[in-house]
Amino acid sequence: MGKINHELLTKWWQLLQSFPAEQNAAEEAFSQLVAAYSTPGRYYHTLEHIYHVLSTIETLQNQVQDLPAIQFAAWFHDVVYDTQAQNNEQQSASYAGEVLSSLQIPHSIIARVASLILGTKHHQVEPDDFDAQVFLDADLEILGSNPQRYHQYARLIRQEYVWMPDVEYVTGRKQVLHQFLHRDRIYLTNLMFHKFESSARQNLQAEIMRLEQISPANQS
Prior knowledge:
Elements: H1 2-16, H2 23-36, H3 47-59, H4 67-76, H5 88-102, H6 107-118, H7 130-139, H8 147-160, H9 166-181, H10 190-214
Protein name: Metal-dependent phosphohydrolase
Organism: Fischerella muscicola CCMEE 5323
């Protein structure tokens, strides 16, 4: 994780160099982000996830209009993460607003960041909102990864819901997976769609099969 922290710090400074943020405030904000994403109970929604989201955004950056807003949203979208709460997105958006205000980020960007973060609750966006499409595709990049990485992701998500009994978890998780499978497209950008759509659907179906083995009597 040390290497990822170093690379994330570099990305953080690169993002802030276009804004009048004071160095001490920027360093404090980064330290708080590291602490938040390193809290006990996080297994997937960690700094490594943020790193992968930011890296995916970089590969799609020629399709966006407001790259800084998307990158800030990536940094803050899971900063508040409690698997027993229903308002993580709202709390993360509020947290982002406070920190970005302290860094003297323009209000227009802060408002856009909040909008992008709130969009992760249902992962649905307007058809002409290309920035949001890039952001959500980056957040879901893991779904189309190779089967081994996806299987590890699924195990880490289960660990984050360790408090939930198997039957209840299987029911809820299968519902989420089926919601993605029932969409016309999981990935909204053409690049991600052509690269990952097929493998994502295979991964989701494979996880559903594994879940049914855990609780075969529980059918969707």
